[in-house]
């Protein structure tokens, strides 16, 4: 079962999401929170696979709650997905830097929500990569000028190639096709890169690639 925590200060939003998610045999909503403090508490109590997190909530907001979850080693397996009203919400970039695995627009279709939860719970793909990539490209320059990161020196030439394609929004299968590898080999490369760079998931790899000037907006087309 995929355990889910819903964090949004609007009861109707939570009720709508819960209705959709409870319809799936392999989903279980283990808790609901109306603020970030409660979301962190529920994450620590239930260790869910996914937290669907609104940003603007009273008290502790979703951004701070995401930081707290990402910083807690006991919650390493908990993936946070940011819920936003618009796909160009400037807070989302900060959330991704804080450890969120991706984001969803609140008016997403039910099938997309279900697919997104499954994808993120597996940790093998970034949500809406083309949109997320555009958002990161738009806001990365506002945070700090990109500069080469010495941490990338630990990567092999092949791993650097794979990281660039991850930053381009490609899935493991697409990376395998591009580099003429097996999907299993591509997945192994991504896992090793995350280990070397101490990244929770692919979302953090994308942020790191942009912030270290390894890739620039639009490089993959």
UniProtKB/TrEMBL annotation:
Annotated TM spans: none
Keywords of the record: DNA-binding, Phosphoprotein, Transcription, Transcription regulation
Top-level taxonomic group: Bacteria
One Gene Ontology molecular-function label: DNA binding
Gene3D superfamilies: 3.40.50.2300
GO biological process, one term: regulation of DNA-templated transcription
PANTHER family in the cross-refs: TRANSCRIPTIONAL REGULATORY PROTEIN NARL-RELATED, TWO-COMPONENT RESPONSE REGULATOR
Protein's name according to its UniProt entry: DNA-binding response regulator
């Amino acid at each position: 079962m995929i355990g889910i925590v819903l964090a949004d200060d609007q009861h109707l939003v939570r009720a709508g999401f819960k209705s959709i998610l409870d319809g799936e045999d392999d989903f279980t909503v283990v808790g609901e929170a109306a603020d970030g403090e409660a979301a962190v508490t529920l994450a620590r109590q239930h260790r869910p696979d996914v937290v669907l997190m609104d940003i603007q909530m009273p008290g502790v907001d979703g951004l701070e709650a995401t930081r707290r979850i990402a910083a807690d080693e006991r919650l390493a397996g908990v993936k946070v997905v940011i819920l936003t009203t618009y796909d160009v919400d400037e807070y989302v970039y900060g959330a991704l830097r804080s450890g969120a695995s991706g984001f969803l627009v609140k008016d997403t279709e039910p099938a997309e929500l279900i697919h997104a939860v499954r994808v993120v719970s597996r940790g093998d793909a970034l949500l809406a990569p083309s949109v997320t990539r555009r958002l990161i490209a738009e806001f990365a320059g506002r945070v700090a000028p990109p500069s080469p990161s010495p941490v990338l020196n630990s990567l092999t030439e092949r791993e650097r190639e794979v990281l660039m394609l991850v930053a381009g929004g490609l899935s493991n299968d697409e990376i395998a096709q591009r580099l003429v590898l097996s999907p299993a080999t591509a997945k192994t490369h991504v896992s090793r890169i995350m280990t070397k760079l101490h990244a929770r998931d692919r979302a953090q790899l994308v942020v790191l690639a942009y912030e270290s000037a390894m890739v620039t907006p639009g490089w993959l087309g």
